[in-house]
Specification:
single chain, mainly alpha, Four Helix Bundle (Hemerythrin (Met), subunit A), two-stranded antiparallel ribbon, globular
Length: 188
């Protein structure tokens, strides 16, 4: 299942990361770069939904796809946060909280899988809400302009990123609490 359509979409998400980052190193007007980066991010983020839907619909789920999909998501989010940090559009502490949580929960899931307790850290609605808030915030901060009826996307993106950081901490505490009984049981 290495070259299925869902897996190819996941690979495309990984390949698009240097394209999004690279846009900010081109000698183009900032308005054009911001628009292209935000648009590309939206397209790439939608492949996250599409690859999962297609994998289930076409019965092409695989352990490799289940591994690669969250890796691609984490690379995309972390690379985007680093660009936003460099552009001074996101607070360093917020970026650290989000990136640190991604690393910690990935390690926790790996450990729980090794001890046969991966169900206790299965994806929860709180994590999905965190992801949605963070993805919309990233788009707004990459775009960095004023829109009719919305106003400054940087202002909205900043507030939404703070909300995503709060959800990040909350979801990490949730996952740790869910894993704790299994961790205690295996420590004996």
């Amino acid at each position: 299942m290495f070259w299925t359509l869902p897996t190819l979409l996941t690979w495309a998400r990984i390949v698009a990361i240097p394209l999004i980052v690279g846009l900010y190193y081109l000698p183009w007007p900032p308005r054009e770069v911001n628009t292209l980066a935000a648009g590309l991010f939206v397209i790439v983020a939608l492949t996250d939904w599409a690859d999962g839907w297609l994998a289930r619909r076409l019965n092409q789920t695989s352990s490799f796809g289940a591994f690669l999909d969250p890796v691609a998501d984490k690379f995309l989010v972390c690379a985007s946060l680093l660009i936003l940090l460099q552009l001074d559009r996101v607070n360093a502490l917020v970026a650290l909280i989000i990136i640190g949580r991604e690393i910690a929960i990935s390690a926790l899931r790996e450990w729980m899988a090794q001890i046969g307790a991966s169900r206790s850290v299965a994806v929860h609605m709180l994590g999905k809400l965190k992801t949605a808030a963070q993805m919309v915030a990233i788009v707004l901060l990459l775009y960095d302009a004023s829109l009719p009826l919305l106003g400054s996307t940087r202002t909205w993106g900043t507030w939404l990123m703070y909300a995503a950081a709060g959800l990040t901490v909350w979801s990490m505490v949730y996952y740790l609490q869910k894993a704790l009984p299994d961790i205690r049981a295996k420590a004996r």
